[in-house]
Amino acid sequence: MASIWKKPFDVALANRSGDNTAVRHLGIEILEVGDDFITGRVPVDERTRQPFGLLHGGVSVVLAESLGSMGAYYSAPEGWGAVGLDINANHIRSARNGWVTGTARPVHIGKSTQVWAIEMFNDAGELTCISRITMAMLAPR
């Protein structure tokens, strides 16, 4: 399979792009960039738990949006941008510790919109959340 990335994109670049952002504050790490996917993880710790000791659902959404947004941006031609239009998430199972790892894959890569699906799993390999993000593609000015 040929790579979908239209801009230079690798794990080191993806991780550097999180500097001084919510991504870094929450401890999100990018683990792998494949030909048509991006994988990252978030720790379940004092930064990311809600008051009842579970991974905050909003943090799962931040992981999903981070992965989907990176995917959309780097799969667009040079000069193009990407912003989120809509995101949803179904929380399937809770996580109390360890890591939650997500993988984003494109469902649709179009000129004006993209849709990405993100599946997240706990350390036991159990599905914790599934999310879908629609991105608006911004043409160069």
What would you say this structure looks like, in words?
The protein is an alpha+beta fold and 141 residues long. The chain has one domain (11-138): Hotdog Thioesterase (Thiol Ester Dehydrase, Chain A, Roll), CATH 3.10.129. The protein has 3 helices and 6 strands; from the N terminus they run ααββαββββ. Strands 1-2-4-5-6-3 form a 6-stranded antiparallel β-sheet. A hairpin with a 4-residue loop joins β1 and β2. The N and C termini lie far apart (32 Å). 33% of the residues are buried. The mean pLDDT is 97. InterPro entries: HotDog_dom_sf, PAAI_dom, Thioestr_dom. GO terms for molecular function: 1,4-dihydroxy-2-naphthoyl-CoA thioesterase activity. Residues 52-129 form the Thioesterase domain.
